[in-house]
Amino acid sequence: MSKNTSETTVIPIEQATAWPPDALTEVLRTGAQRLLAQAVEAEIEAHLADHKELLDDRGRRRVVRHGPLPERDVQTGIGAITVRVPRARDRTPDASGGPMQFRSTLLPPYLRRARSLERLQPWLYLKGVSTGAFEEALRALLGPEAPGLSASTISRLKAGWEQDCEQWSGRDLSGKQYVYLGADGVYCQARLEQEKQCLLVLIGADEQGNKELVGLADGYRESEQSWLELLLDLQQRGWQAGPQLVVGDGALGLWKALRPGCPRARAQRCWVHKTRNLLDKLPKGVQARAKRNLQQIWMAETREEAGRAWQHFVAAYEAKYEKAAECLAKDRDDLLAFYDYPAEHWRHLRTTNPIESVFATVRLRTVKTRGCLSRKTAFAMVLQLVLSAQEKWRRLNGPKRLAQVIEGVQFRNAIQEVGRAA
Q1: Over the Cα atoms of the chain, what is R_g?
Q2: Is residue 56 part of a domain?
Q3: pTM, full prediction
Q4: Hey, which residues does 197 pair with through a beta bridge?
Q5: Which of 15, 25, 227, 331 is the most interior residue, by most CB within 10 Å?
């Protein structure tokens, strides 16, 4: 993309519904708005490039940018998207529009309402990954008579996505401190590949309690080597202050990689994944009751209460369902680690479900994309979707407590132990 991208402004969307109950809608609206800005930027860049050979009598380029048009809303099936279209002008004194005038085919003047509202967001944001599919996306927005964008415009847009990926993947992390990390491996299908793509995801909470995407890598399954390469890459880009706690599922590769990658970090196993794995070892008829019993463990007010609920579960199921009891028993310390941290943070530490929620949308979008989708393109698409969703991620409760965690203050059942530090 050109350096002059500031002319195409993405205006913040007014939130129509609460987050996270309508998370999918918000991701689609934010993603579509961002894409519209990028697509129109690609259009004007193509327009300027087509006329770059034209010079005025002083040797300057005749066709140049001329600021943006006033912002306006385009009504879609999932709410209004605010856009601002850039302008171009001809420096020739007697020029009055004509062929040198820039006119966006994607957002022509006076367009206020998409003609096919329900199809706009997924088609624009996801079908726009290939030249042919983008033409269909334009028909969804402007109707069957809409002209398609040129191949050069689409190439500029796709190149901009790839450049965004490269810049994000190489960004400087010096001075960054993430108190907690959530880690998960997510599988998405790239249409040009036989095997599903495994994306290794790290979401961190910084010292102010803000959540952000820390790492995203295309790994080989969830192997130790893949996780280790991701962690070392973060360190090479300046990230030195390792997390106090890492939340993840039972993937052994992650926990093995933590020893050399983040040696000081403690492990917290995800209760959602553990519950799912444990219930698979029980008959369907007893799963609902077992799930309630498990909930009494991780919802207990203190570690001691959780221990009693733990013993009750083992006593109730061990005789008939030994594998289920063993599945619970082997990870006791890691499952109850959150009790050593402030109570305000417990709801954020017991599960990696926020990652699952975000990538449920990603899986849906990649599955619905019919066109050819390489691993590189899929990675770019996923990154754009996650960064869009990141703007609405909930901040940690009790952010003031994070300073105590960083200092090594010891907690027991959320109560600070006076005089003790790590």
Answers
A1: 26
A2: yes
A3: 0.66
A4: 188
A5: 227
CB atoms within 10 A of CB 27: 24
Among residues 136, 168, 200, which one ends one of the domains? 168
* Burial class (CB within 10 angstroms; exposed 0-12, middle 13-18, buried 19+) of 116: middle
Range of the domain at 61: 5-168
In a domain, 411, yes or no: no
Do both 147 and 30 map to the same domain? yes
pLDDT one-digit tens code per residue, 163-205 = 888 899 999 999 899 999 999 888 766 554 556 668 899 999 9
In a domain, 414, yes or no: no
Q: How many domains does the chain have?
A: 2
Query: What sign results for the dihedral spanned by CA atoms 89, 92, 96, 102?
Result: negative
Secondary structure element (H or E) that encloses residue 353, with its range: helix 353-368
Domain shared by 343 and 196, yes or no: yes
How far is residue 404's CA from residue 387's CA, in Å, rounded to a whole number? 29
